[in-house]
């Protein structure tokens, strides 16, 4: 009876430690994204970032706002910041999805996504920004 309690407590402790480690890594990821945005004079809050599990694939979801004249810049900073965070935290992410609200009379929302390997290729200068936007980014 005592051994069973000890085992159950040990398992509970391991689960708690693992869940806190996961949350800490997500916090580090979100923090890295925020740092890159700040260097570009932009802001994104923690409640506009989350991880989404779709089957076996894990995506990073980022919700951003942009003026009509600043769409490309905000989008590229979003992908760049996500790529930097992936590199620094070694987070297992299959892709990045950006929900971008464009400020106008009637707000318009678009969804933009790219695979992690393509974002990392952009960061490592294996492809240009033009190649990335024209062939690696999906617009919805």
Give the structure's gist in a few sentences.
The chain is an alpha+beta fold. The chain is built from 4 helices and 5 strands, in the order H-E-E-H-E-E-H-H-E. It has one domain (2-139).
Structure description:
- This protein has one domain.
- It is built from four helices and five strands, in the order αββαββααβ.
- Strands 1-2-3-4-5 form a five-stranded mixed sheet.
- With 140 residues, the protein is an alpha+beta fold.
- A hairpin with a 2-residue loop joins β1 and β2.
- 52% of the residues lie in helices and 26% in strands.
- It has helices at 2-39, 71-89, 116-123, 129-136, and strands at residues 49-54, 57-67, 95-103, 108-115, 138-139.
- The protein starts with a helix and ends with a strand.
Helicity level:
40-55%
Strand and helix order: HEEHEEHHE
* Extended strand count: 5
Q: What proportion strand?
A: 25-35%
Radius of gyration: 18 Å
Briefly note the structural class of the backbone. alpha+beta
Low-confidence stretches: none
- Reading side by side through the largest sheet, how are the strands ordered? 1-2-3-4-5
How many H/I helical runs?
4
Q: What is the overall silhouette?
A: globular
- As for the number of domains, it is 1
Note the main sheet.
Answer: 5 strands, mixed
N-end to C-end Cα span: 58 Å
- Mean pLDDT equals 85
